[in-house]
Amino acid sequence: MTETGDRYDVVVIGVGGMGSATTYHLARRGLDVLGLERYDIPHTMGSSHGITRIIRRAYYEHPSYIPLVERAYDLWDDLAAETGRDVIHRTGSIDAGPEGNVVFEGSRRSCEQHDIPHEVLTSEEVTERFPGYQLPEEHMAVYQPDGGFVVPEQAIVGHVEAAQAAGADVHGREQVHDWTETPDGGVRVETDRGTYEADRLVLAAGAWNYKLADALEGLAVPERQVLGWFQPETPSTFEPENFPVWNLRVPEGRFYGLPIYDVPGMKLGKYHHRDEQVDPDDYETDPQPEDEQLLREVTENYFPEAAGPTMRLATCMFTNSPDEHFILDTLPDHPQVAVGAGFSGHGFKFASVIGEILADLAADGDTDHPIEMFRLERFDDGPE
C-alpha cells in the first residue's frame, strides 16, 4: 500500500449525490478536501442515478423537510447558474390519493401551512389539464407548479467539476477498505490505492455506509429498487411541459413517476418495490420479469396511454432508516466523523442542501439547519 503523505482537512467517502455536494461545499470554504469514490463518477451501482429524480415543494413526509427543500431549490438554481448545466427542471408536481390519505392530505397541509402556491384538483380536473393521467374517480390531487426533477448525473458532475475548480481532489475507482482514528483525533483512511490522513471524515457512501460505521448497523438498511420506462402511445402527452411529476397512492401501493426525458418513455417506480433488503455487494442487479410486470400493471391502470413497449429497466438501491427519515449527525464515539445516511427513496432532491449540512458538520461540528429530527440519538433505545 502506498503512503501518500497527504494530510487533508476533510476526506469524503462516496462521491454520489450527497458526497459530491459535500465535497463541493467544503472546497468552496477553502478547505483541503479529498473525495473518494469506489466506482465511476457518476455511476449506476448505488442510489444516485436514474436519469431524473423528483423535486417538490409540497412535502407530506414531515414539516421539518420544508425549510430544507426550500434551501435545496436555491442551491440547485445556484449550481445551474455556476456550471451552465441543466440540473433542475420545473414541470409541476401532482400528489394524489383518496381523501384522508397522507399523500394528498399531507401535501395539502404542507402547502397551506407554509404558503406554498398550489391547487387542489379532482381526478377529472387532473385528466382535463394533463390527459396522460387517468386516476381513480375518488382521488384528489395537490398540484404544485414549482415541482419538477433534478438530473442526478448532471448534478454530480456539476458538483465535482465545481469542487475541483475550487481545489478539491476527487478520486474515482478507489475503494475504501477501512478508517481509524489517529492519536491526534484525526482519521486515517486506507484504500486499495493508498493511505490518507485528515482532521475530519464524512461518510456519504449510500448503501455501503453501514459497513463503514458500527453505529449505523440496523439503522441504514439497503433495499433493492427497480425503475421502469414505458413508451407512450402519444409521446407529446408525456413530455415535461405537459406532464407533471407525480406521487400516487393506489391499492397497489405508493408509486412515483416522471415525464419523458433522455429515455423515450414515462418513468415510474414503487416505493419499497418488492421489500427486498440486500447486501449492496451481493444482490440481483438485473431487473427481472416480475419487476417489470409490477410496474407495467400500474402504468396500464392509471397511465394507460403510456403502457407501450418497455424502453428501459434499471436497478438501484434505497437505504432505509427505521422511521424512513434521514440520518444527519456526527458519530457518537467519533465526533470528527459526520454521516449522511438513510435517505429512504426521497433524498436526492435534497442533495444540494445535504452537502451544505454535512460540510457544516465536518467543518464546525454543527449546523444552523434544522436537523434535530435527523439526529442519531432518536435511536438510542435501538431501532424499532
UniProtKB/TrEMBL annotation:
Top-level taxonomic group: Archaea
Entry keyword annotation includes Oxidoreductase: yes
InterPro entries for the chain: FAD-dep_OxRdtase, FAD/NAD-bd_sf, MTOX
MF GO annotations: N-methyl-L-amino-acid oxidase activity
EC number of the protein: 1.5.3.2
Biased composition (Basic and acidic residues): 170-180
Domain FAD dependent oxidoreductase stretches: 9-361
Enzyme class label: oxidoreductase
Keywords associated with the record: FAD, Flavoprotein, Oxidoreductase
Residues covered by region (Disordered): 168-190
Cofactor: FAD
Protein name according to UniProt: N-methyl-L-tryptophan oxidase
The organism of origin for this protein: Natribaculum luteum
Gene transcribed to yield this protein: solA
